[in-house]
Amino acid sequence: MSEFAANETDYEVVEGEPPELLGRNLNSAGHLLASATAFFFLAFIFAYFYLRSLNNAGLWHPKHVTPPTTFGTLVMALTVLSAILVRLGLADQRAGRRSEWRLKAAVGLAAGVGVVVLQVVEWATMGFGPADGGYASVFFGWTAFNLLFIVGTLFWLQNLLATAIRYRNVPVGGKPTPGHASGDPGRPGHDVADPLSLVRPGLEALSFYWTFLAGLGVLAWVVLYLA
User: Fold this and answer.
1) Which residues are CB-neighbours of 36 under 8 A, at least 6 positions away?
2) How far is CA 73 from the centre of its chain?
3) Rounded CA gap, 40 and 32, in Å?
4) Per DSSP, what are the bridge partners of residue 98?
5) CATH class, range 17-50+69-226
6) Helix 199-221 and helix 69-94: axis angle, to 10°?
7) How far apart are CA 130 and CA 141, in angstroms?
8) Element (H or E) spanning 75, and its range?
9) pTM higher than 0.70
10) Tens digit of pLDDT for each residue in 110-144?
C-alpha cells in the first residue's frame, strides 16, 4: 500500500494546513465532546430521580442492592487523580518540560487503567444484577457507559503520549522526517505544516475533557453511593 501511494499519488496537491487551525479545531472538538457527554449522562440522572420518585411496589432500591462504597470511592478518586496529573502535565508541556509532562501523563494513564480494573472487580463482586430494581438498572447503565467513555479517553491519552515518546529526540521547533508521522515513508511532505505542534492543543483538549469526565465521576459517586 505504501509503495502504491508513493508511486501513484501526486502529493503536490496536498496542502499543508497550518497547525493553528487544527489546534483550534481540537479545542472546539473537546468542548463539543464534553457537551455531548453531558447530554448523554443527563438521561441517567433523570432516570435515577424519576424512578426513585415512583418507587413502584417499593422495588426502587431493595435492601440487598448495595454496591460496595469502597470500590466506588476508589474509582472516583483514581479518576480525579488521573485528571489532575494530566492537567499538571499540560502545565509542564506548556513550559517546555517535555520529560516531566510525559512522566505525569504516564502515571495518569496508569491511574486510569486502575479505574478500569477496579470497576470490573466491583461488578464481579456485587451480589445483584441490573434486573434487581430501578436503582440497579441505573447503576449498571451509568457505570458501564462511564467506563466506556473513560476507556476512550485513555486511548486518546495513550496516543498523545506515544507520539511524544516517539519523537522525544526531535528538538523543540523541529519536525520529523516528512511522511514519517503519517506512516507513509514515500510522502515528500506533511499534511500538517508541523505535526508535533499538535501535541499541545491535543493535550489541552484532552485535559479539558478528562477534567469534565472526572467531574461527572464525582457526581456519579455522590448520586449512586451517597444519595
Assistant:
1) none
2) 19
3) 12
4) none
5) mainly alpha
6) 160
7) 8
8) helix 69-94
9) yes
10) 999 999 999 999 999 998 999 999 999 999 999 99
Cell of 177: 522526517
Q: 33-42: long-range contacts (C-beta < 8 A, 24 or more apart)? A: 33/209, 34/208, 34/209, 34/212, 34/213, 37/149, 37/209, 37/212, 37/213, 37/216, 38/212, 38/216, 40/145, 41/142, 41/145, 41/146, 41/216, 41/220
CA atoms of 163 and 161, how far apart (whole Å): 5
Neighbours of 60 (CB within 10 A): 18
Residue range 156-182, pLDDT digits in tens:
999 999 888 888 877 766 666 665 555
Name the residue among 80, 50, 114 with its Cα closest to residue 222: 80
Q: Sign (positive/negative) of CA torsion 166, 168, 173, 177?
A: negative
Residue identified by cell 506512516 is: 183
Cα torsion 136, 139, 144, 147: sign: negative
- The 10 Å Cβ neighbour count of residue 224 is 20
Q: For residue 173, what is the DSSP state? A: T
Q: Which three cell numbers stand for residue 51?
A: 424512578
